[in-house]
Design brief:
Helix content is 54%, strand content 13%. The chain is an alpha/beta fold and 199 residues long. It has one domain: HUPs (Rossmann fold). Strands 3-2-1-4-5 form a 5-stranded parallel beta sheet, sandwiched between helices. The longest helix is centred in the C-terminal third of the chain and has 24 residues. It starts with a helix and ends with a helix.
C-alpha cells in the first residue's frame, strides 16, 4: 500500500508541475515556435490550407477558421493564384468561408476525403501532380513540423507557412492550457508518425 501511495504522490506532483509549467511559464509559446520552424512569408503559385479538425456541431474548428483567415490575407496580398483546402467534409466549409471573404470561388480547389495529415499529404500530392510553380503549406504553428514532413514524404515539395495558433492563444492566461494540450497531443502524433515512417 505504501508503494501505491508513493506512486500516487509522485503522479500528483508531476501533474502539478505540468500545470504550473503550462500556465505560468512561456513554455507553450516557446515549444509552439520550435514546432513551427522558420517564420517567414513565402510566396508561390498554390497555397495549401489544412483543416484543423473535423466539424463540431456542423461548424469548422477554431483552428480551421484561423487558418482560413490567414489564407485569405495571403491571397489578398497577391502571392498566390490558387488555394487548395484539404480536409474531410470541412474543406467545403473552408471554401465557402474564404469565398465569402473575397477569394474567387474558382480559385479554391477542395480535397474532401482526407481524415488525417498523412491522407491530406497523399491526396493533395496526387491532386497537384504535374502542377507548375511553388507550393506553400499553411497550417498552425504546432502542426507544421509534422505536416511539412508528411507532405515531403508524399513527394510534394512545399514551403512552410506556419501561422501563430498556439502562439496567439498562449498570450492569454486562460488560453495557455488548451494550447498546451494541443501541443502535447501533437507531440504524440509526431512520435506515431515517426514510428510508422510517415515523416
Amino acid at each position: 500500500m505504501t508503494f501505491l501511495r508513493r506512486m500516487a504522490a509522485r503522479l500528483c506532483g508531476f501533474i502539478g508541475l505540468v500545470v504550473l509549467l503550462a500556465t505560468l511559464t512561456p513554455w507553450v509559446s516557446w515549444y509552439g515556435g520550435k514546432l513551427a520552424g522558420k517564420w517567414d512569408d513565402p510566396a508561390g503559385d498554390t497555397l495549401i490550407v489544412l483543416a484543423g479538425a473535423d466539424l463540431a456541431d456542423g461548424f469548422p474548428a477554431e483552428s480551421t477558421m484561423l487558418r482560413c483567415m490567414y489564407a485569405v490575407s495571403a491571397y489578398r496580398s497577391g502571392h498566390f493564384r490558387r488555394i487548395v483546402a484539404s480536409g474531410f467534409r470541412t474543406s467545403l466549409h473552408m471554401r465557402s468561408l474564404m469565398a465569402s471573404e473575397g477569394v474567387p470561388a474558382e480559385a479554391i480547389l477542395t480535397e474532401d476525403e482526407s481524415t488525417s495529415t498523412r491522407e491530406s499529404a497523399l491526396k493533395v500530392a496526387r491532386l497537384l501532380a504535374g502542377a507548375a510553380g511553388p507550393k506553400v503549406l499553411l497550417t498552425s504553428d504546432y502542426h507544421m513540423f509534422r505536416a511539412a514532413r508528411a507532405f515531403r514524404k508524399a513527394g510534394l515539395e512545399i514551403r512552410p507557412f506556419p501561422i501563430p495558433d498556439a502562439g496567439k492563444r498562449a498570450v492569454r492566461l486562460l488560453g495557455r492550457w488548451p494550447a498546451f494540450l494541443d501541443e502535447a497531443a501533437e507531440t504524440g502524433k509526431i512520435a506515431y508518425y515517426s514510428l510508422r515512417r510517415w515523416i
